[in-house]
TrEMBL record:
This is Uncharacterized protein.
Amino acid sequence: MTARYKPKLVKFMTYKNGVNYSSDHTFSMEELLDITPDHVCRWMNELTYGSPEPSDDMRPVHRRSSTLEFSKKAISTVMPRVNSTWDPVTQRDNPTRSDAVNKLIKRVKKFEVRREGAESKARRSVEFDEFTNLLLLVHDMMKLQFANISPNSQYPSTLLFQMHWSKNIHEEQDAPEQIVLGSMDPKMTSASDTAMVFASGSAAKTAFTPADARAMTSGFRLSLPSSP
């Protein structure tokens, strides 16, 4: 069992048995075979709705369906009959591969589509340090050059940029001019201003290196006004 799945299994078994297991606890074959779809559903309902038996007017505002799917996979990987669909007649095989569990997750997805579920945390703003790392990644992938950046005479507050080097660029028409906008962030705006200076200057460089990326960003914090 991978390290990323074990914590989920421990939390589930702690809820099911009412015992605080340690993170390195090893569960026996008998304990795993005792798990039923009802155990899994009650735990997932508790996580998602805040109740093991949610009423019709309750909404899954505490967990996303993606979290439930990951938890389902974490439990499934340790089941003795991992590849067998749950048999409701014999009450055997893999409880995570049951209609009850699948319908629970499907219902949560339906509420998410209606904007009645937990908010997605998959998208967020890029942090400044992450942005500088992205600059270096772009350089490694497409050999970024300052010649690819030019002023935009139509909209002076923006830049024009062409991505000539990339695995998907095969013809000139595959690299149209793109407009680079500011990010409403003082540090990022400084980066954009610096790029415009390089692009419009007579002594513009021909190649953009990792050292250039660090140079463009290292002094921005110093140029910002100090906090009162």
